[in-house]
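pls design
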């Protein structure tokens, strides 16, 4: 069961709690940008670039500029890079 919660976070060099914080941050940004897009649909002069700017920023953080942390060694400490 523990593997289910830790396998993916460890694959990106994060602990479960670190990964949860990052994922919540991304999710919250997407929710806010989605709401801005819904407002933009009705009032097209508002939030003109919010959705596309948010997507670009999140992509840059997640994919383009991601700094991977080293995986913990067997003792649970971060391995030296």
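designed seq:
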């Amino acid at each position: 069961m523990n593997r289910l919660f830790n396998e993916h976070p460890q694959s990106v060099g994060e602990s479960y709690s670190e990964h949860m914080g990052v994922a919540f941050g991304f999710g919250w940004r997407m929710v806010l940008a989605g709401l801005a897009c819904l407002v933009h649909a009705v009032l097209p002069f508002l939030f003109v670039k919010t959705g596309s700017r948010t997507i670009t920023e999140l992509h840059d953080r997640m994919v383009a500029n991601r700094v991977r942390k080293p995986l913990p060694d067997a003792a649970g400490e971060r391995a030296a890079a």
